[in-house]
Predict the 3D structure of the following.
Amino acid sequence: MRVITERDLLTLLRKKEIEYRGTYEVEVPYVITPSAKSLLRDKQILLVEKNVPDTSHNMVNEVSSEKNTINELPDRFDYSNGIEIQDAVSQLIQLLYFPLLPDDFFSPLVWQYIEKQQDQLRRWQESDFTSPLDNIIWSYPGEKFNFRCCSWRTWQYSVGEVNRQINRIEWYMKSRDCSKTFGDWANSYRKFINNEEVIRCKQ
């Protein structure tokens, strides 16, 4: 059974295979994530089902509520059995390379701290989110960020992308047992990238 995700729809929009206020044809059976359904609604795209079987003698769908039908996954079964979560964590790891920042924006010590966070996120991902995540808070012992080689706007954009991805993973994890593990790690990492010391270093 095909799973339609927000990522799939965004790819189709970029390729102009579907358009704003257009239609999107999909063969049944399928499931669609809540975020994908919301995107279709926001873009005013009509979902058109193809090859719909005759269900006049099948009462299975009729017992499902409007909110939880065969074509809409509840939150705790969403994201293709964790595929979306795996992808989201992989994207976060990539964002932590801070590709828009020059190498000398951070000191070697700060880069080592970031690399350690990437490494433990990979281990956590490979363990199917069962291994612990260390909540090591960076305290900036005399470290400064080099804003002479990078604009403040570039830094803010990079931080915003990381924060947005962290928020996305927290939402994905909200019904999982490991949600607190990631939440604690996220809070400690936010103290690193949102620390007021960064603002003082800008001067």
